[in-house]
Amino acid sequence: MIVIGIEGSAHTFSIGVFDSTQKKFLATVKDVFSTEQGGMIPNEVAKHHRNVKEKVLAEAFATARIDWKDVDLIAYTEGPGLAPALLVTRDFAVALAHEHKKKLLGVNHIIAHLEVGLFCTGAKDPIFLFCSGANTQVIVHEDKYRVFGEALSIAVGNAFDKFARNIGLGFPGGPKIEELAKKGKYVPLPYSVKGMDVDFSGIVTRAEQLYKQGVSKEDLCFSLQETCFAMLLEVAERALAHCEKKEVLLIGGVAANKRFAFMLDAMCKARGVKGYTVPLAYAGDQGSMIAYQGWLERKREQKDFDFNPKWRAEEVDTFWKH
Ligand code: ATP
Fold first, then answer.
1. Atom 15 in ligand 1: which residue has the minimum CA distance?
2. Which 8-state DSSP code applies to residue 126?
3. How far does residue 156's CA lie from ligand 1's centre (Å)?
4. Closest C-alpha to ligand 1, atom 5
5. In the list 27, 101, 130, 287, which could disulfide-bond 5, CB 3.0-4.6 Å?
6. Is residue 304's pLDDT more than 70?
7. Residue 94 pLDDT more than 70?
8. C-alpha–C-alpha distance, residues 321 and 11, integer Å
9. Alpha helices in the chain (DSSP H)
10. Do the beta carbons of residue 225 and residue 175 sit within 8 Å?
11. Is the pTM of this model over 0.85?
């Protein structure tokens, strides 16, 4: 079965192709909205998606060496995400399904991140540490996916992007912070863990104050990373003990950070559990995870094709796991 997945919930417009016979991705093509200065404006992101969608589709088909006659199913991101961006994605998916007479399914973006993480790493039943631009959640699968802890104000990726934007590094901030952090040393920043939840808003405010007082970008980037990652790993460690799991899986765009993967590895070794990090190509948003999720849900029938900016992981019936 050949499934194409269309992702466009935030800054990335991407199309992936999954071949279920070979159990592999034939293409993952993306075009990412970015700015030199300033952040992500929802209507600008939607405009970006409208402008690049046909080009991304053509490139995905060419890379995968497929034609419409090969396609069995189309999946698209129904939510959560930015409403204007989700709307462009939904409309494109509906138009393609109609024009080429293909089955269409709308899937949950967060669940797709979790499931592609399992597919790529071979992890079986981990504590998921999902760290992206819009979300920071500690998730475990029981009867369905359950959120054990999360960021109370802004997500970790968003905290990085906000700090980077406010000190003139542009968007996305995470990769730029990782680069500068390599030359930095530690300055104390607020550490805020509340039970199973984490709070990143105070840390960004304090880092910005220190920047205005003359502390270097390098030192602040290093300290921001160290503090945020230590907070996240403390919560993940507690979830491991509470749920008696033996694996942790780091997923989402922030999983691209090598320092984070290194710290995760150290924590897991100390506890005698296995730590996995999703491969770089599948860490951030991409259409391949949507295609894979569509394949998992292929037996489901869907009549109404909506978009849902606030769709939470707990609301999804994970029938394919039972
Ligand atoms: P979601 O997937 O929840 O909808 P999203 O679309 O913003 O959120 P992703 O593409 O998964 O997210 O991740 C983007 C985030 O990852 C951005 O905040 C970006 O700064 C961050 N990021 C990317 N690379 C790195 C890195 N090397 N280090 C730290 N953060 C990074």
1. 133
2. P
3. 9
4. 133
5. 287
6. yes
7. yes
8. 30
9. 42-64, 83-100, 109-121, 156-166, 173-181, 201-212, 217-243, 258-271, 287-296
10. no
11. yes
Enumerate residues 6+ apart whose C-beta is below 8 A from 228: 156, 159, 160, 200, 203
How do 73-79 and 2-7 pair as beta strands? Answer: parallel
Q: Which residue has the least CA distance to atom 6 on ligand 1?
A: 10
Q: Is the peptide bond before 279 cis (omega within 30 degrees of 0)?
A: no
Name the β-bridge partners of 46. Answer: none
pLDDT for 225 equals: 98
Distance 208 CA to ligand 1 centre (A): 20
CA-closest residue to ligand 1 atom 2 = 132
- C-alpha 108 to ligand 1 mean position (Å): 17
Domains defined for the chain, CATH in brackets: 2-113+283-321 (3.30.420.40), 125-279 (3.30.420.40)
Enumerate residues lining ligand 1, CB below 6 A: 9-10, 12, 81, 109, 132-135, 157-158, 160-161, 172-175, 178, 252-254, 256-257, 284-285
Closest CA to 7 of 314, 291, 306, 309: 291
List of residues 6+ apart from 185 with CB closer than 8 A: 218, 219, 222
Q: Which residue has the higher pLDDT, 182 or 172?
A: 182
Other beta carbons within 10 angstroms of residue 53's beta carbon come to 22
pLDDT grade for 88, boundaries at 50, 70 and 90: very high
* Termini Cα distance of the chain: 21
Residue type, 28: T
Minimum-distance ligand 1 atom for the alpha carbon of 10: 6
Spatial distance between the Cα atoms of 51 and 148, rounded to a whole number of angstroms: 38
DSSP letter, residue 319: G
Best residue for ligand 1 mutational test, from 9, 48, 132 (most atoms within 8 Å of Cβ): 132
Q: What span, in angstroms and rounded, lies between the C-alpha atoms of 271 and 248?
A: 11
